[in-house]
Design a protein that fits this description.
The complex is a heterodimer of chains A (about 525) and B (about 290).
Chain A: E1 4-17, E2 20-33, E3 37-42, H1 48-55, E4 63-72, E5 88-91, H2 95-98, H3 105-117, H4 121-134, H5 153-166, E6 171-175, H6 183-200, E7 203-208, H7 211-217, E8 220-225, E9 228-234, H8 235-241, H9 245-251, E10 270-279, E11 286-296, E12 301-305, H10 312-319, E13 327-333, E14 338-340, E15 348-351, H11 365-376, H12 381-394, H13 411-423, E16 429-433, H14 441-458, E17 461-466, H15 469-475, E18 478-483, E19 486-492, H16 493-498, H17 503-519
Parallel strand pairs in A: 3-7, 3-8, 5-6, 6-7, 12-17, 12-18, 15-16, 16-17
Antiparallel strand pairs in A: 1-2, 1-4, 8-9, 10-11, 10-13, 13-14, 18-19
Helix pairs in contact in A: 3-4, 4-5, 5-6, 7-17, 11-13, 13-14
Chain B: H1 2-19, H2 23-45, H3 80-115, H4 118-132, H5 138-147, H6 151-178, H7 181-188, H8 193-229, H9 241-248, H10 257-291
Classes of the chains: A alpha/beta (about 525), B mainly alpha (about 290).
């Protein structure tokens, strides 16, 4: 078969559900060539990861191959399972889930290398050091003795790349490996993967919902929709000649015209002053927030940008008062009074990044929306029902979904439920912690539109935390840049974007500009 | 509370749906249901119902299995089938009783420890460690001996020794679930610890606790049989499988059926509980996968 590595013919995968069999992949026909960089794009739930798993021979429990076949053309390997960890490696989306939390990086490396090559400890260590250097982790102090939770998202993903590459594979499946990472880390990870790919002349299947990254790195792109491949062509053809509306949605960029609002001279609704928070005790203290000062005015959106580990999550939790701060003030001004918050306030609501994790999987949508009302002491069933139905309508969710469970909803729908829940208590401020970063571009736009609509209707103030500058610039009136627990720069959105004063901000803006430039090829 | 009941019913529904697909789990379930039914109604079914209350028939003493006595008779001439099945009632009482009290004591303490301050958590966990430091049989024996030999005291003894396991499971569930985003959101809306336990932790912990309880039910029967074997368990005229084996152990060589049938019933009952426990665990895992 010459230069063909995989030949997928009429592949059909179904899952067993209560309503019978559900088609996940429908008559997939695709060839993967040797040394090729193939991109696979599709919206959430289109079957991208299932195709990756099927290539590894790892169809999840509850699903089965109901038709067609995957043939591979590796030398002297008969079964797909015998290829795993030898000729084929996989890097998955969430490195925290992929790495064993109980083993150090060195142990995880050694186990794989000893099994793959039969190395002894010394030889394995030599090999590990070589790979740690290749992925530029050798400068991290004591990297080999660290556990996964002691590394940042980007570092963990580098470890995963090194692990996947160290077994000397011929084919790598990279499944959404940059989702949730900051723009500059994202570029670093993809550059690293494809420079290693070039050196080692291996094939890569890059699964993503981000066409911008895929078009930059891949030779050929396959577009997956509802389990079917609707388009396969070389990257240029897909980018220039396609008439398909679906593919276009992945290429569409959010409207990045910064929002302009009249200057607000009133008193801030929330004033956060000198917020300090450290973790650990005695010698092992890590400072997460170093005197953060922020103010937010009525009806405005404050965008907070910062990379992983900059203290974003700590800032969210301390502002919500679910994490005790070491020192600092948090003055909330409402029409009635002014108070220094030390306990959670119902005037501040929150929406988190992981819509699946922020909804109780055992509760239906109705119960999820009922919880805030119960906490507020509303007991009248009729009032509860009216409020919930009104809120579902407000966030444009069908009333029929009120009995659905989170796993039955799409990512966008779940995020709408999370927004609806945050609005149930009629807050004055909403903290939006990366509410769109786990969503594809199309869904992102819809959620941003909804947020803008709600803000106008309720005159709400938003603290919008994100690493995606495009999204932040679209929605924010002012920007604050968080770096190592400090606000290093803040100002009007346009001012910060046009004249960044800090090096870190410049670097962030450059990374995003790079992504935008490549998107317009 | 309705969430908790819904979760329990939902688990049971999926479990029963899956049950009919898995032959081993179905046979275990049918065996336990059959045993429960027969052990309750055996006084009305068996022609030898007087034997349950300690009747003596020397004319039929020590008979091997036959058409009139399928499991043979014991040295007092009692029908072994009737008393073995009736003994099942007391053994199942031990199984359910132990699991009920262990869960009742252990789960609230564990969940409280999971959401309480570090200091209170430490105190609770060190106390439970104290209970767990005893070898498995010693503490139930000591408690039963101190309270006096009876089946109810065996239940109390085993429950006191085993509740720390449920403290551990419930605490670990509470720790995991407390760190999840939906609990953070709930707390940010003013939810207290009790609300978090009731609304989020308890419904999400039903599956692992139920699985552990099912497996423990089998071991409770084994432990109770062991305690009865040394004379501290069920007292005449109540019968329990361990007691039946104790009473007959001297005749084991000549009257094998007196030990063999109660032994087989212990084996089948424990195996049934274990198989059902495994199936429940699989059901939970599948559900978790679907929801993940």
């Amino acid at each position: 078969m010459g230069d063909i590595l995989y030949k997928i013919k009429d592949l059909e995968i179904k899952s067993c559900s209560e309503d019978g069999h559900l088609v996940i992949l429908d008559k997939i026909n695709l060839n993967i060539k040797k040394g090729e960089k193939l991109g696979l794009i599709g919206e959430t739930g289109s079957g991208k990861s299932m195709l990756g798993s099927a290539l590894m021979g790892l169809v999840p429990r509850g699903c089965f191959v109901s038709g067609g076949a995957i043939s591979h053309y590796f030398d002297s390997f008969t079964s797909t399972s015998s290829l795993r960890g030898v000729k084929v490696s996989m890097i998955s989306q969430d490195p925290m889930q992929s790495l064993n939390p109980l083993q150090t990086i060195e142990t995880q490396f050694s186990i794989i290398l000893m099994k793959r090559f039969g190395y002894n400890k010394n030889k394995a260590n030599e090999h590990i050091l070589k790979w740690i250097q290749k992925v530029y982790l050798h400068e991290v102090p004591g990297i080999l003795d660290r556990y996964p939770h002691q590394l940042s998202g980007g570092q963990m993903q580098r470890v995963m790349i090194a692990l996947a590459m160290s077994v000397d594979p011929e084919f790598i499946i990279a499944d959404e490996i940059t989702t949730g990472l900051d723009a500059n880390i994202k570029i670093g990870i993809l550059n690293l993967l494809f420079s290693l790919q070039k050196d080692l002349e291996i094939s890569v299947l890059l699964i993503s919902h981000d066409l911008i990254s895929v078009q930059k790195y891949c030779d050929r792109i396959a577009v997956l929709k509802s389990g079917k491949i609707i388009e396969v062509a070389d990257t240029k053809t897909i980018i220039n000649k396609t008439d398909d509306k679906y593919t276009k949605t992945f290429r569409r960029l959010p409207n990045r015209t910064p929002k302009q609002k009249p200057e607000n001279n009133s008193e801030p609704i929330l004033y956060v002053k000198d917020l300090y928070k450290t973790y650990g005790s005695n010698k092992d203290t890590v400072s997460a927030l170093n005197g953060v000062t922020l103010e937010i005015y009525k009806g405005e959106t404050l965008g907070v940008i910062g990379e992983s580990g900059s203290g974003k999550t700590t800032l969210v939790k301390t502002t919500l008062n679910i994490l005790e701060r070491d020192s600092g003030d948090m003055i909330l001004r409402t029409n009635i009074n002014e108070s220094n918050l030390t306990k959670p306030s119902r005037k501040i609501g929150a929406v988190f990044q992981d819509s699946m994790g922020s909804l109780n999987p055992r509760m239906g949508v109705y119960d999820i929306l009922r919880e805030p009302l119960i906490l507020k002491g509303v007991k009248e069933p009729k009032t509860i029902k009216t409020k919930i139905m009104g809120m579902l309508d407000k966030v444009h969710l069908g009333l029929s979904l009120s009995q659905s469970f989170p796993y039955q909803l799409s990512g966008g729908q779940r995020q709408r439920v999370a927004i609806a829940r945050a609005l149930m208590l009629d807050p004055r401020i909403l903290i939006l912690d990366e509410p769109t970063s786990a969503l594809d571009i199309y869904t992102q736009e819809k959620i941003l539109d909804l947020l803008k609509e709600i803000q106008t209707q309720n005159n709400l103030s938003f603290i919008f935390i994100s690493h995606d500058l495009g999204v932040v610039s679209e929605i924010s009136d002012r920007i604050a840049v968080l770096y190592k627990g400090n606000i290093i720069e803040s100002g009007k959105t346009n001012d910060v974007f046009i004249n960044p004063s800090h090096d870190y901000t410049k670097k962030l803006i450059d990374s995003n500009a790079w992504m935008d430039k490549n998107a317009n090829i | 509370m309705h969430l908790l009941i819904l979760e329990f019913i939902n688990n049971m529904k999926i479990f029963l749906q899956n049950l009919f697909l898995k032959k081993s789990a179905l046979s275990g379930f049918v065996f336990l249901c059959g045993l429960l039914f027969l052990s309750v109604f055996i006084p009305f079914i068996s022609p030898y119902e007087q034997d349950i209350y300690g009747a003596v028939h020397f004319e039929t003493a020590g008979q091997p299995p036959s058409f009139s006595h399928w499991f043979g008779t014991d040295t007092a001439g009692r029908d072994m089938l009737t008393i073995t099945i009736r003994a099942g009632f007391y053994s199942l009482k031990v199984a359910f009783g132990v699991v009920f009290f262990s869960v009742l004591i252990g789960v609230p303490i564990g969940m409280f420890a999971g959401v309480a301050s570090k200091r209170i958590d430490e105190i609770i966990m060190r106390i439970t460690d104290g209970f767990l430091a005893f070898p498995p049989l010693i503490l139930p024996i000591a408690i039963t001996a101190a309270l006096g030999p009876s089946l109810n005291n065996v239940i109390i003894g085993i429950s006191i020794s085993w509740f720390p396991w449920y403290v551990r499971i419930a605490r670990s569930q509470a720790l995991i679930i407390s760190s999840l985003d939906y609990v953070s959101i709930s707390r940010s809306m003013g939810a207290g610890k009790l609300h978090v336990i009731k609304t989020h932790i308890l419904p999400n912990s039903v599956s692992p606790i139920l699985t552990q309880a099912t497996i423990d039910a089998g071991y409770a029967i084994l432990t109770a049989a062991g305690i009865s074997f040394i004379g501290l368990g069920a007292q005449h005229p109540d019968v329990e499988w361990g007691l039946l084996i104790t009473q007959s152990r001297a005749q084991f060589i000549n009257h094998w059926w007196e030990v063999f049938f109660p032994g087989i019933f212990i084996l089948l009952t424990v195996a049934s509980f274990n198989i059902i426990g495994d199936e429940l665990r699989n059901t939970t895992n599948e559900k978790r996968l679907n929801s993940g």
